[in-house]
Amino acid sequence: MFLYIDPGTGSMLFSIVIGIATTLIFFAKRVFVKLKFVLSGGKAEKISSAKIPYVIFSDHKRYWNIFKPICDEFERRKVDLVYWTASPDDPALSEKYEHVKAKFIGEGNKAFARLNMMNAGICLSTTPGLDVYQWKRSPNVDYYVHIFHEVGEPLTYRMFGIDAYDALLFNGPYQEPYIRKLEALRNQKAKECAITGCCYLDTMKSRFEKNGGNANSTNNKTILLAPSWGASAILSKYGEDIINALIQTGYKIIVRPHPQSFTSEKVLLEDLQRKFPENENFKWNKDNDNFDVLNESDLLITDFSGVVFDFTLVFDKPIIYADTSFNKDPYDAAWIDEPLWRFEKLKELGIKLDKNDFSRMKEIIDSVIENKELKAARLRVRKEAWQFMG
Prior knowledge:
Rossmann fold; alpha/beta; 7-stranded parallel sheet; 6-stranded parallel sheet
């Protein structure tokens, strides 16, 4: 008989082991430092602890589009920065920086074990779940800073995902009120918050302008289906039905699942990919960088995914959003009894698609692409959501 441990229990056990190991290591280091102090005659001189002033942690190479502008700025200012990544093929590892040092620290639990013993002044990351799962706050890190990897209110992380951070970097003024309400409800110390803009949108906009605009050179329209992941997302709720309806339009269809779907919804995706093999007018997109597929597409169909703002704000193209009846329960949004910013903006940026509308998919797509009022709405939302552009 084999001993089976479910993932949740395994995560908990690993956290306990790491916590004990980390405590023992720090205790041993403190004993060593005190002993060295005594043996040196008790001189009041500081023993170097090799603290790294600035560290960026990236849990996946797909976030390089967020961190590259920051690394470039550190390099420009000649300020030393250490970039830790959990992807062995992260593009950062091949950059030729002088002041930015990129290092692969292992994947999964190996990376978390390294992070839990980090000795740094400031750690910047997009990764939620600090002090919730395997990644624990290190006693030797002074300050943890979170930067958001999408435009939207900061409530769609899994519950308590950013509570343990000391500071948050926002894209616009609409985000902070949500955090202050959460802090009040949870009786937490106020985090330092700053509006810094959205550097990955800046980079994407620069690429778009250098590219000379939209890339679709065919007469046929290209429609991109790019949902979020989870039980409330498009592929979980509508799967075959919405893909069939899109194929029936005769347009070129690209389906780009959320990267997390390949881990958390592997069976679902394998089933859909088997039922809908690729052909001339139907493609599955798994590119690490979404720039080319967004640039190629004439219209985006999504749900509550942050990609809607990449598509509308940078490429200035229309969207259709599916009615997925978003379930707030697993997210920080469950604590706030008010409409989420992104859903209010979806009403301005696009047209809602109900399952009853699937039979009219082509008609709806054509009407949205020609809608001039949606273009004006994109300009309004861009000014609100994307501060300090460039």
